[in-house]
């Protein structure tokens, strides 16, 4: 899976949890750019945008994981 496809997959997961407008504010990437990347219409986007998406995604994913029962 290429870099663009990884970011696209992350955005697909994120937009199942957040609206594109909310996500735009959280990661400081324009909503239109989020839509274009998610739908595969924008392939050459900046590393800064990719880093913002990746960083937020990894933080969000970490908070979504549950601690197994009986462990702290």
What can be said about this structure in brief?
This protein has helices at residues 3-17, 20-27, 31-38, 47-64.
N- to C-terminal separation? Answer: 35 Å
Biggest beta sheet summary: none
Estimated share of beta-strand residues: under 5%
Radius of gyration: 13 Å
Number of structurally distinct domains: 1
Which outline best applies? globular
Helices, by number, come to 4
List SSEs in N-to-C order: HHHH
Class from helix and strand fractions:
mainly alpha
Proportion of residues in helical segments: 55-70%
Plain-language structure description:
GO terms for molecular function: DNA binding. It comes from Acinetobacter cumulans. InterPro entries: Cro/C1-type_HTH, Lambda_DNA-bd_dom_sf. With 72 residues, this protein is mainly alpha-helical. It has one domain (3-56). 68% of the residues lie in helices and 0% in strands. It contains 4 helices and no strands. The chain has helices at residues 3-17, 20-27, 31-38, 47-64. Helix 1 packs across helix 4. It is globular, with a radius of gyration of 13 Å.
């Amino acid at each position: 899976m290429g870099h663009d496809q990884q970011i696209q997959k992350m955005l697909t997961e994120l937009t199942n949890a957040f609206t594109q407008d909310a996500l735009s504010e959280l990661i400081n990437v324009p909503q239109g750019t989020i839509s274009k990347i998610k739908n595969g219409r924008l392939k050459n986007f900046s590393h800064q945008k990719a880093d913002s998406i990746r960083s937020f995604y990894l933080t969000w994913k970490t908070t979504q994981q549950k601690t197994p029962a009986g462990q702290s």
